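Posted in: Structural Biology > Protein-Ligand Complexes

Title: Requesting predicted complex, protoporphyrin IX containing FE in pocket

I'd be grateful if someone could produce the 3D structure tokens for the following input. Sequence and ligand are given below.
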Amino acid sequence: MSPKASPISNAQRALDTEPQSVDAPLSAAAAFLVLVVKDDDASIATARSVVASTGDLIKDLRIRANSGLFTCNVGISHRVWGPLTGKPAPSELVPFREVRGATHTAVATAGDLLYHIRADTMDLIIEFEKLLLEAFGDAVTAVDDVAGFRYFDGRDLLEFVDGTANPDGLDLPAATIVGEEDPDYAGGSYVVIQKYLHDLSAWRAQKVETQEAIIGRTKFDNVELPDATQGQKSHKTLCTIQDADGEHDILRDNMPFAVPGRGEYGTYFIGYSRHLWVIEKMMERMFIGDPPPLHDRILDFSKAVAGVTFFAPARKFLSDLAD
Ligand code: HEM
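-- Reply #1 --
Done. Output follows.
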């Protein structure tokens, strides 16, 4: 008979595997800050120490948020995992794998650290980024910094409600948080980002019925349309991954972003998953098509201009990097 784990060891395990704020509610504002770490030893050491102290910086800001929402999740890429943590990478962590379909490509771009920051107001986000980047100094280069905003009732700039099918309740950690299948990284989550730019005039030239068939939901009231069993599938159907184990969900916290003066309107896709392969499979179905070459028609109006994969480890893993 195997000995039972004591309450103390259970509590310690819970502490060691406490996830970052993956399950934070959809916020009014967000930022997606992607950094590349310089390769010299001093820069790596600075980056390690700033990443380790991010939890303290979050607390410094949260107390100033007057009980409003403020969360930040840190992701680390495959490229810097070894140098930064001194540990072997999580079992599924690989660099973003480009997906080249007959017409569209999910491009892979640079990025070593992801800061996914969510708050009720933009002032907190900017303050946090300012303090964070001061701490990093010239150890990093920011390759992207996108401010996302909530658009009416949670719509993307294609004007559809985005985020509906996200898992909730106990399904949320089951879909997003690594468990004992990778014990050293239990409590962590794979995170993939993609930046999309929309061709809004081409999209708006489509009939609402065409747009609804592309997404797989009605536009005004967000009701799910039946899945096509053959031929062209909707975005919703292509992103539904089912096998003998059932349906595999991910958590999305996409945000619209825009610079109207430059005609720039986009969606910043962010997906959290317990298994990287689930997000990769969705992208394969979107870009290559199911069946090929019937790609996701959302891509005829939305161009992927960035794509990076990270792993957001448990909180304690991050703070322990200081040791
Ligand atoms: C231009 C970028 C994108 C836009 C505007 C977009 C928009 C949407 C919208 C409006 C829905 C339907 C409502 C909902 O359930 O949220 C949806 C569903 C979904 N999308 Fe996307 N999406 C984008 C990219 C992606 C990517 C890159 C992935 C994954 C790799 C993805 C995964 C999903 C999933 C899993 C669902 C739910 C499917 C289900 O009903 O089970 N999306 N998306």
